[in-house]
Amino acid sequence: MRFNSQIAAQYVTALPLLEAWFCDPKNEKTNIGVNAAGIRGVAAGPAGSATAPLSSYNTWANAELVKLLRGFWDLSALQSVEGMGAFHAYLVESVESFWLSRGFPALARHQSYRLCDSFIKWMRVGAKSRPQIARAVHEFGHVVVNGPTLELLERLCDKLPSYSTQMAPQDTTASYHQIQAIVREFCHQYGGTPILFDVFARNEHHARASVSASRTAASGRSALMRGLRRQRAQVSALVVSP
Length: 242
Fold this sequence. Notes:
By secondary structure, this protein is mainly α.
């Protein structure tokens, strides 16, 4: 697949910044993967219910985190595309069952994917006692498929599968996996990982500004050094040989 070379070049240049962002826990602004903005559109309880979707998500995510830390999953099994895919599929089934078991409206499949991928991305800093989890998320975590990533992919790719809230679950699943494959192919060509691509999609303007600032600073330092060299040459020319 062909990708927009200009955006690809910006991504490659920004990779060190994306790595730094990924590793800095200060950049995680949620309790356990999702905040009020991220849960928008998700229902938890009948009309008029006081049951908040965010607190329901947090209950589910905390229970899954406990399972993970207590050895429910063999962490070495997460160290591959297939292993992370199996873990992801389990989480999707788990969150959808959790919602139904409490009498909530069924989660749309794209909502399930967004919640599960956000939870997995959070684990890079949330499971501090298990560094192998952070490595697995870095290498094999999925891109969160929503507005920022879809908008970037539309500019990056010449052809992108449909992905909308109106699709049937099986169609959403097919498109989701196609999008993940496209992102993996992009990373295969240009470096990084899908989770760093996700960071780029959400921080693209900041990354470009930081790279530009770094280049400006470097350019300024180069100009200063050139000026100093010219001054030295001029001084040397004024020295009269004995």
